[in-house]
Amino acid sequence: MIIGLPLYHASAAFIRHTLNALHTDLRVDLCKLQLRSNGPREKQFLVRNIVSGRARLTGAHNEWDM
User: Fold this and answer.
1) How many domains does the chain have?
2) How does residue 65 score in pLDDT terms, banded at 50, 70 and 90?
3) What is the 3-state secondary structure (H, E, C) of 10-43?
């Protein structure tokens, strides 16, 4: 089992619903996925995403590097 995975899923769902309320044409691009191992039981996943979308009120294009 990956420690912290349920919290990651919950926060991702919250962010997705919030962004859907404020933006249209949302897109998520996976830029980097890296696994680091600091021993046999300690591992880290590093994920880099680019999220882009168009604001519902102004129509401006927005982009976030996460």
Assistant:
1) 1
2) very high
3) HHHHHHHHHHHHHEEEEEEEEEEEEEEECCCCCE
Rounded to whole angstroms, what are the CA distances from 46 to 23, 54, 66? 26, 27, 11
Give the tokens for residue 66. Answer: 């996460």
CB 33 within 8 A of CB 45: yes
Domain that holds residue 57: 5-65
* 62 contacts 55 by C-beta, under 8 angstroms: yes
pTM above 0.90, yes or no: no
What are residue 36's DSSP bridge partners?
44
